[in-house]
Amino acid sequence: MGYHHDHPYRVFVKETPRGGRGRIVMNIKTITHGRYKTNTYVVDDGVSGEALLIDPTENPEGCIAIADSAGLRITAIVSTHSHFDHVGGVAGVKERLGVPFMIGAQAVESLRQEPARAHVDGVDIADPPEPDRLLKEGDLVDIGGLRFHVLDTPGHWTGDICLYEPSAKAVFTGDSLHRGEIGRYNKGCNEAELVRSIQTKLMTLPDETVVYSGHGPVTTIGEERRDNRGLKGLPLLK
Q1: pLDDT, tens digit, for every residue of 33-70?
Q2: 3-class SS at 228?
Q3: pLDDT band at 189; cut points 50, 70, 90
Q4: Which of 9, 6, 41, 8 minimizes the C-alpha distance to 27?
């Protein structure tokens, strides 16, 4: 693992061996940007040159530039939910690259309303495009040699999903789970539903699974099972 400082955005690259299939890596480049310091991820397999863009915030040119600088082709966009800091760059990237945009199946209506909500918060974003694919529990998203499993994790907002890559032992949790705390919640969120999603979909993953969340630093499922203050004292649901 290492940090690279030759780009104006913070870039984190993680290499993960894939057991039984030779040494295949998962490279994860992180752009932290915007009012809420949202993490946008550019993820590739180190071989195919294809990359998945996760949660593009209001900086589409930065998302494209970081992929271009690594010689990668963004071939799909996935947003973990529809809040503007996770979809603000979708329109710009899709207009420029013409790649498919995916989001949770229950997030469509809230996605359409997001520019108005963002404006109330003092942020203007382009109207997100209609999704090309609606994702639900059990769906698969393939990028090069990587296969992401979709987990439905409602509670933080409408239609929240997480992306789990079991061979790389990595999960992208959006705002469902952060280091040391459960996902951020505010008006429109359901804390009880969020906690249940975390317990039944995320805390059941292997301890060594690395968590890449929508805000803040990386962590692991094991660390969160042990130390997360939002889950302290709660029984593990199954």
Answers
A1: 888 899 999 999 999 999 999 999 988 999 999 999 99
A2: coil
A3: confident
A4: 41
* Whole-number Å distance between alpha carbons of 100 and 2: 30
Six-digit token pair at 20?
């039984």
Q: Which amino acid is at 2?
A: G
Structural domains of the chain, count: 1
- Provide the residue type at 106 as one letter: Q
Please give the distance of CA 117 from its chain centroid, rounded to a whole number. Answer: 21
**Cβ neighbours of 16 (radius 10 Å):** 19
Per residue in 146-178, pLDDT (tens digit) is: 999 999 999 888 889 999 999 999 999 999 999
Residue in 179, 186, 182 with CA at minimum distance from that of residue 199: 182
Domain presence at residue 145: yes
Rounded Cα distance between 227 and 219, Å, is: 11
Please report, for the domain that includes residue 55, its CATH number.
3.60.15.10
